[in-house]
Specification:
single chain; 3 helices; rod-shaped
Length: 85
């Protein structure tokens, strides 16, 4: 994947802390920042997928359980009655 350059405004304290963490990791600051942004994006995407998956599971459970239509599971009509004109 090709890299793009960007400029961001960050407080001096945050830059100092990021430099310290990059030094501790033994990597250049730009690489550390890129990794932090990528990790944040991954976490956000995983979180969204998890929420969508949980919603899907709730819907699926409701459908599996079914809904009470007041028929006790038996149709009280015939096909012909439904299609009378």
């Amino acid at each position: 994947m090709a890299n793009s350059r960007m400029t961001v405004a960050i407080s001096e304290e945050t830059v100092a802390e990021a430099k310290r963490l990059a030094d501790r990791a033994g990597i250049p600051l730009s690489k550390w920042v890129a990794g932090a942004v990528e990790a944040h994006i991954r976490i956000q995407n995983d979180s969204e997928k998890g929420r969508r998956n949980k919603s899907f599971q709730r819907i699926r459970a409701r459908l599996k359980k079914g809904y009470d239509l007041g028929t006790a599971g038996h149709a009280t009509w015939t096909r012909e009655e439904l299609h009378e004109r």
